[in-house]
Write the structure tokens for this entry.
Amino acid sequence: MPTAKKKISKTATKKKLTGKTSTVKTKKTAVKKQASKVTATHTAADGFSFHGIGPYQEQKNEEYMNENQIAHFRNLLDAWKKELMEEVDRTLHYMQDEAANFPDPNDRASQESDFTMELRTRDRERKLIKKIDESTELLKTGDYGYCESCGIEIGIRRLEARPTATYCIDCKTLDEIKEKQRK
């Protein structure tokens, strides 16, 4: 008899766990749907994903900056620029809609502070859009992916992390050390 109880309790436990597991899977699916709306996501299955563009999968003996890699980085840069431009439009509409003359000085100050932060963020993004445009131009000329200073390959993984990179990691490190010494 004790074995029958164990079998029943194991089956009941499995049913309970199965119910919980399906609930957890449903929650995970909902989270994944929300995460797809976010610019950059990390998933265990495919590593880093940006607007649905996963990391480039290098092939053995593949030539650096071949057509597939160029197309991948062009898509990545275009998606990034599109997202930044949408943010600019969203900010413009936000500032137009939220612009109000508050009689209370504290409310006006708070609104001004919010607008200042938004404008500062957009200014940084404007500079980033300029860098994205420069990188797109480098793609067209065939110079994308090569260090401006020494001319060696920047590397696929570095470009995945920073698609607008113009220096290899060694030259960038040296540049940062020199900058630190100047201060």
About this structure: Residues 102 and 109 are 9 Å apart (CA to CA).
